[in-house]
């Protein structure tokens, strides 16, 4: 993975899309446990080398569903 700004963009975009899929809404508030689990899953995938937002979102939603 090239740099930290790319990782941050990947995380932010993946989180936003996965949140929408998991909650089926655009609301920014949610149960804290869901937010924490979502964040941990996305971070783990990025650390594992995932560099595609769609792949990150699909795998995160699969793991959490």
Describe the structure.
The chain has helices at 4-23, 32-47, 53-64. The protein is an all-alpha fold and 65 residues long. The protein has one domain (4-64). The radius of gyration is 11 Å and the shape is globular. It starts with a helix and ends with a helix. The mean pLDDT is 87.
Briefly note the structural class of the backbone.
mainly alpha
> What's the total number of strands?
0
The unreliable regions are: none
Arithmetic mean pLDDT: 87
Helix coverage percent:
over 70%
Furnish the topology, listing elements before pairings.
Layout: H1 4-23, H2 32-47, H3 53-64
Helix pairs in contact: 1-2, 1-3, 2-3
Could you give a short description of this structure?
The chain is an all-alpha fold. It contains three helices and no strands.
Task: Give me some keywords for this one.
3 helices, globular, single chain, mainly alpha, 65 residues
């Amino acid at each position: 993975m090239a740099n930290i700004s790319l990782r941050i963009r990947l995380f932010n975009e993946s989180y936003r899309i996965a949140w929408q899929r998991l909650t089926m809404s655009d609301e920014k508030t949610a149960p804290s446990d869901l937010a924490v689990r979502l964040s941990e899953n996305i971070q783990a995938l990025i650390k594992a080398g995932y560099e595609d937002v769609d792949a990150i979102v699909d795998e995160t939603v699969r793991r959490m569903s």
